[in-house]
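Data deposition worksheet. Section B asks for the primary sequence of the deposited chain exactly as it was used as input, without tags or linkers unless they were present during the calculation. Section C holds the resulting structure in token form. Section D is free text for depositor observations; keep each observation to a single sentence. Incomplete worksheets are returned to the depositor.
Section A, Depositor: J.P.
Section B:
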Amino acid sequence: MKWLLIAVGGVLALGLAAYIAMAIQSHKRPATLGLHHGQLRPCPASPNCVCSEAADRTDPEHGVAPIPLHAGAWARLKQNITAQGGVIDQDDDHYLHATFTSSLFRFVDDLELRLDRDAGVIHIRSASRVGRSDFGVNRQRVNHITATLDRM
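Section C:
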């Protein structure tokens, strides 16, 4: 019985150490941020990313709709991001990058917006920096940001 408790404790300690290591790793800014050939980068194969650009839009796991562009939408999106706890790291009036940090393990997620005036939309991408699953957090974040935009 004593060895079983030691084994279970060891497994729990290793799991906690792995989560802490992932949280530390998530604070390193990835090289894959920003526009690539004028568009937001496509999502990786892992399910912890959503994006409205053409490459991902038809993918049910990663696709989300772009945000319709209307007067004041960019400014209201920035307000929504900060109201939800996001920190805007870059805003050059056609590209925006913000980060969100989870409360428990301090994992960092990236949110990117790209203003496409020609198409009349704002493209959005939200992705976790580490891990495989995000339990739907990035999709929920995008849905909440766009839903609250409609109410403003």
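Section D:
The mean pLDDT is 86.
The helical segments are 2-25, 54-57, 73-83, 137-151.
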